[in-house]
Amino acid sequence: MDVKKIYMDANALLEGHFKLSSGNHSQFYLQSAKVLEDPKNAKLLAEALAEQINASGLQVDTVCAPALGGLIAGFALAAALDKRSIFAERVEGKMSVRRGFEVSKGERVIICEDIITTGGSAMEAAAAIEALGGEVVGFAALANRGFCHRSKSSVTRQPNCKLPAEKPFFALEDFTFEIYTPETCPLCKEGKSEAIKPGSRGN
Ligand code: ZN
Question: pLDDT per residue over 121-144, tens digit each?
Fold first, then answer.
């Protein structure tokens, strides 16, 4: 499966000259939600991710997604794994499990995101699950931004990755691309284009 092509075709991976919300520049821009605009893509990607998780032998009872970004991916993965789907949401800044969702003691939960950047939201969701007595057995995402190490990839873990190194992290593809300060941006140096701001969040 050519995951990058699926993202490109869905305009979820843009190529050009972008100004990220950090002020830095990049040749690529990921608008992860766009790939899930087509439910067929959500199903296709989640099934491939479920296949990886099943092949690893990891036992999972429940998929938990941090809202908002992880909702669709989490639900699609739960459907593909035929497991329960719940989500955690931020309430006054703190990630919590609400809406009557229950987590039993020792319940094996995998945290699922659409994309893992450094894994901050995923870790907050994991803490919310553990506070209820659940056991976080691993992490999953459709895409890995390239700061964390996913199973079966040569991309190494970077110091800013917040996921625990001892727990498995499954994702379909690494989206590693360079980010430049405006002063060092090679696209600016070329002088052919100006960096544009494509969306709300530059990850
Ligand atoms: Zn630039």
Answer: 999 999 999 999 999 999 999 999
Calculate mean pLDDT across residues 40-59. Answer: 98
Least confident of 9-23, 61-75, 136-150: 9-23
Separation of CA 34 and ligand 1 centre (Å): 24
Is 116 a member of any domain? Answer: yes
Report the C-alpha gap between 33 and 37 in whole angstroms: 7
Look-up: residue for tokens 């070329």? 190
Distance from the alpha carbon of residue 18 to the mean position of ligand 1, in angstroms: 7
User: Which domain, by its residues, includes 127?
Assistant: 33-175
In the block, residue with structure tokens 């998929």: 63
Break the chain down into helix, strand, coil percent, rounded to 5: 30, 30, 45
As for how many domains the chain has, the answer is: 1
Q: From residue 4, how far is each of 132, 133, 138 by CA, in Å?
A: 37, 37, 24
- How many angstroms does the Cα of residue 159 sit away from the middle of ligand 1? 25
CATH number at residue 147: 3.40.50.2020
